[in-house]
Amino acid sequence: MAAEQPDPGRRERKKQRTRESIQDAAYRLFAAHGFEQTTVNEIAAEADVSPGTFFNHFPAKESVLFNDRTALIEQGTRTIAAREPAEPPIEALVRVVLAMLDAPGLDAGSDRERLRLEIVMDSPVLRGLMFQRMFDIQDQLAEALRATDPGLGELEAAALVGAVMGAGSAAVQTALQSGLPLEESLRRALGHITRHLQAAAG
Question: In terms of domains, do 169 and 91 share one?
Fold first, then answer.
């Protein structure tokens, strides 16, 4: 009788459950004790896995909070590439941010995402990492925008992307401080800045 072959799908589901268990444990400990005060060994113990298993899923404890955002960036650059020539750059960039909110793996309206952002904003180390990642995303979006509009200079493209991303960042910070829903706040802020920049351009 032939030996039963392992089910790749089942193995992948088990791997994903372990990853989520580690993330849940880390979030609980970070929220209770702070990011800097929490060790990998404590996270592993809370998740009931070995430290080695932790490192099989995450290269460092900050990686629990900052997953690979390749798909997110690709969603943004694809949206820019599909821009119609007559579409104002600011409108295209707002569409980009809204498309990125709908990217797989990002649920801006979830309690989990709110908790993640609260943990990040509470730590100077994590805030620095977040802003560095945001600057990298801005650079890539500005480059993609210029590719659709040869007449747009490097400074102008960077300023437009920075205005939209800055509005989103400010909306997130205000929402966290005031208890407003994250996704609703982001969408309101983007609509607000679009109206004002269009009025200034007109």
Answer: yes
Tokens of 153: 């200079």
DSSP code of residue 123 = -
How far apart (Å, rounded) are the C-alpha atoms in residues 79 and 137?
14
Q: pTM for the complete prediction?
A: 0.79
Residues 6+ apart with CB under 8 A from 88: 198, 201
Confidence of residue 9 (pLDDT cuts 50, 70, 90): confident
Residues 94 and 138 in one domain: yes
Indicate whether 1 belongs to any domain.
no
CB 79 within 8 A of CB 102: no
Indicate the SS3 state at residue 100: helix
3 in a structural domain: no
Residue with tokens 């032939």: 2
pLDDT digits 0-9 by tens, 168-183: 889 888 998 898 888 8
Residues 132 and 162 placed together within one structural domain of the fold? yes
